[in-house]
Amino acid sequence: MAGWIRRLLERRKRDSFSKTTNPSSSQGTASSHSASSSSSRSQRPDLSSGARWSRLYDLCVCHSEEDISEAQLLVSYLESQPEGLRCFLMLRDSTPGGSIPSELCQAVQSSHCWALLITRSFLLDPWCKYQMHQALAEAPMANGRTIPVLHRLQRSEYPKELRFYYYIDITADQQRGFQQVHRTVLHYLEELCQVDSSKLSSPSSVDTETGVSEEGHRTTHSELSSTDSG
Question: Is the sign of the CA dihedral 71, 76, 77, 81 positive or negative?
Fold first, then answer.
């Protein structure tokens, strides 16, 4: 009987000891979570390259007047993200008194990417189709710059001009669609900045006037010196 009581007391001691050690393990887990979150923040893409600032806007949102509410929601979401995306919204950012064709062309040329908010109103608006064609002319290849965004539109109504482009449908899940637009713009900007950084870090520099590298100049001078000595 005494042995049974002794084993029970030892079991309670082990349980109390494990309870005292649990808080430290939870603190370790919390610290690991904080470390992982800080590392994820440090892994954000570097978008400070000069290539990004060569254009006034990261994204131009093309939409019809009837779809201004959806366009404003998309712009509000993108501009509230940590990367600080610069968006062009026609009714907000166009120059007062400017001509519509000039403003539309300027908006396309001043932006890295273009989100086409395609609805039935978009397809019936000649200025929207005009801006869509301007975007396609600016970047005819499907390289992530033109982003079709469908809203309450059947697949059969999808513009034939965009048949080689994947689209984002925000009809069923608007938040998820906005996130996809955000990731697409960031992916293009990240690639753009990486290419620009690799160019700047290249060891060979080129004379902007003659287009000849420093190695080429050195070779030319050595050839001239050898010729003179001959």
Answer: positive
